[in-house]
Amino acid sequence: MRLRGRIESVAAGLCGLLFLVTLIWPNWIEAVFGVDPDQHSGALEWTVVAVALCATLTFSLLARGEFRRARTLSTR
Prior knowledge:
mainly alpha; 3 helices; membrane; transmembrane helix; about 80 residues; transmembrane
């Protein structure tokens, strides 16, 4: 498997982790960074959830394509 597939898999995992952490504990941004950019409206947290979910799906599909390509090339 190529390095690209490994990088996409790691990126999918990290984005998935960010998605889950933000979904379960939405105030982590305020706790970690000490700022409240959306003044407790929750808009930033839902934006992070949506972007992380899209990134997770995108990286997962890209990694899947790399794994399939590597498997196809190895069986030839």
